[in-house]
Amino acid sequence: MKERKVALYGLLTALAFVLSYIEAQIPVFFAIPGMKLGLTNLVVLFALYRMGSLDALLMNIVRMILVAATFGNLFSLAYSLAGGILSWLTMSLLKRSGKFSMVGVSVAGGVAHNMGQILMAILVLETGKLIYYLPVLLVSGLAAGVVVGILGGELVKRIRM
Amino acid sequence: MKKGDWFLIGGVLLLAGAALIWMQAAKTGGSQVVIRIDGRVTKTYDLMEDRTAVLEGIDGGHNTLVIQDGKAFFSEADCPDLLCVHQGEVSYDGQTIVCLPNRVVAEIQGGDAFVDEVAH
Asked: Which residues of chain A fall below pLDDT 70?
């Protein structure tokens, strides 16, 4: 079983890494910093439901370090860590509560991700005025979360392990 | 979908709506464009004076700021994502254009509340 888990870790991390790259190539629909399509969250969500909370976190952190080392820098790492960890924390707690389906968990994750990124941007750029992006970030996190949640639900249902 | 999902979605929409209404209500015209690079105020431009300025961000990045007819926008930038250019025009107090890669922030500010910053 251990080998299986190691292989799955590698597979999911690689998949999330590639999705991060694809996401970066997609032209921006709404030009707001902190906004993401959340493709990689699909993998995190899958890991959260199929492997476990800590596995999902570990995999995502490895993914973020890889992405920052390949395409970004320390500052881009700070943004993704803020978004990724806050999103993971929110999703784990909501999943554990048992009151939400994958759609709800993913929506909360998407919104928390955007909040984490904008808070980090406020800290780094030292301008609280970025809070003006709040409504757009809430709604975009919600929309991305619904799509990822529905897709994630299908994946978990269909992929047998 | 569970009941909790709908409450969550409703809550997020409500919060976004409330934030939007509050921001619309608080909207007033600005008079200055304050440029911050890496968190430090480097330049202040009059919003009523048409001009084009090239801003130098960190790591040799550049953003071209255009002020025209009381509005400000970034016409060009050498950052990879060009989010700042896509963001379009800003003119209201508190509105910002941000370029994360070059760490350049252009912020619109109103007339009087701004004095303390100029004093530096």
From this structure: 1, 27-35, 129
- Contact status of B9 with chain A (Cβ, < 8 Å): yes
CATH code for the part of the protein at A2-158:
1.10.1760.20
pTM score of the predicted model: 0.74
Give the confidence band of B112 by pLDDT, cuts at 50, 70, 90.
Answer: very low
**CATH number for B76:** 2.60.320.10
The shortest C-alpha distance from B2 to chain A (Å) reads 6
Domain map (residue ranges) of chain A: 2-158
B39 contacts A104? CB cut-off 8 A: no
Structural domain that includes position B22: 1-27
Please state the domain count of chain B: 2
Q: State mean pLDDT over B48-74.
A: 91
Q: Is the pLDDT of residue B27 over 80?
A: no
Confidence (pLDDT) at B64: 94
Q: Which residues of A touch B1 (CB under 8 A)?
A: 101, 103-104
B86 pLDDT band, cuts 50/70/90, is: confident
Beta strands in chain A (DSSP E): none
**A123 touching B (Cβ < 8 Å):** no
> Computed over its alpha carbons, how large is the radius of gyration of chain A?
15
Per-residue model confidence (pLDDT) at position B118: 46
